[in-house]
Amino acid sequence: MALAEGEKTGTLTPKERKDLKVLALFVAVYCREHHRGEKAPLGVTEHDLEGLAPRAVCGECRDILAYAFEKRLRCPLEPKPVCKHCHIHCYRAGHREKVREIMRFSGRHLILRGRLDLLWHYFF
Q1: What global pTM score does this model have?
Q2: Largest CB tally within 10 Å, which of 30, 32, 43, 74?
Q3: Helices 93-112 and 14-34, interaxial angle, to 10°?
């Protein structure tokens, strides 16, 4: 992921770090339960992202996660709304449905296994 014109620079805010960590966790859970085969970490080092996506995921999920990270970092709105309540919808149509599927599955999966702190993300 390279920085593009208009993209924020510097370190991430705590809210941005938390959002990206939750996204990486959800994608990793989805990938673990749905995809078999060779997996590798996302491997991001730019823009203070190192360590946010340490879990290994397949190539398809790596692409989705990299796309979602890029869109989250380029969001022009301050404060950033939850994507499902946003009026801009910056994801491409295919990616938007895939991220919804990932969030729906992983949210339920983690909540049913005791991650009640994620209820906030699930409902809001």
Answers
A1: 0.74
A2: 30
A3: 80
